[in-house]
Amino acid sequence: MLLNIKNLHVSIGGKEILKGLNLGVNEGEIHAIMGPNGTGKSTLAAAITGREGYEITEGEIWYKGKNIVGMSPEDRANEGIFLSFQYPVEIPGVSIQNFMRTAVNSKREYQGLPPMSTVEFMKMMKEKQAMVEITEKLQNRFVNVGYSGGEKKKNEIFQMAMLEPSLAILDETDSGLDIDALRIVAHGVNQLHNSENAFVVITHYQRLLDYIVPDFVHVMYDGRIVKTGGKTLALELEEKGYEWIKEL
User: Fold this and answer.
1) What is the sign, positive or negative, of the torsion defined by CA atoms of 181, 182, 186, 187?
2) What is the rounded CA–CA span in Å between residue 22 and residue 19?
């Protein structure tokens, strides 16, 4: 199993958000996490990636056979965990080309590999840009500075393509996207998905799952996964809303 979360309890500022969550993800699978605001979906993403301020008070997070609780966010990223943020940050003064070259070579160094040559890097960058329909002029702009919402999300999918993670977590990556941008982002995800990696897609809306078809849909409520099903569960949520899950 690629990711195995056991009885996970997570607190923020002394308030418990996750209350005994269990989740298993195998290579080749796409899992959708759905649920109303405040149920812990983004907290789950933060706990997996090691974000500061999220205290794991109980439970384990196993990834590739290692319990990664206590591992730094940087090492988790270098181990192949990628997080697409709901609100991508701007980095003034740093071009996407330089940013990605540093990130790619940092991961290679962690893996004991030599830095990628300029020719290799530029070839790879061109291939991945085409995959997510990003124009080449974007590579010299500062990271996310002056980008539209759709450009920021497409840029994150491009970063994911460059880093080739084993586990990608998309935290409401569909937030604020129009249909065209949503289609391009989903196309990039579907292009990247293969039998050796896995995706955890956190979303409020069923519409994203029209483009990225999940193997499993999990419903979160009050810090736990309360129901799991297939794609039809997302359609049921779209029809009924979230009120009915309080009874589960």
Assistant:
1) negative
2) 10
Q: What is the largest CA-CA distance in the chain?
A: 58
Task: With beta carbons less than 8 A apart as the criterion, state whether 2 and 30 touch.
Answer: no
Q: Within 13 Å of residue 155, how many CA atoms lie on the same side as its CB?
A: 29
11 DSSP β-pair partners: 16, 55
Query: Domains plus CATH for the chain?
Result: 3-87+148-247 (3.40.50.300)
Residues 6+ apart with CB under 8 A from 196: 27, 28, 166
The radius of gyration computed from the CA coordinates of the chain, to the nearest angstrom, equals 18
Q: 188-217 burial, b for 16+ CB within 10 Å, e for fewer?
A: bbeebbeeebbbbbbbbebebbebbebebb
Convert 51-88 to b/e letters by CB count within 10 Å (16 or more is b): eeebebeebebbbeeeebeebeeeebbbbbbbbbbbeb
Return all residues near 132 (Cβ < 8 A) that are at least 6 apart. Answer: 154, 157, 158, 161, 184, 185, 187, 188, 191
Residues 106-126: pLDDT tens digits? 999 999 999 999 999 999 988
Please state, in angstroms and rounded to a whole number, the distance separating the CA atoms of residues 16 and 1.
27
Residue 33 contacts residue 10 (beta carbons within 8 Å)? no
Give 205-248 pLDDT, tens digit per residue: 778 888 899 999 999 999 999 999 998 888 888 888 777 776 66
Q: Considering the entire predicted model, what is its pTM?
A: 0.89
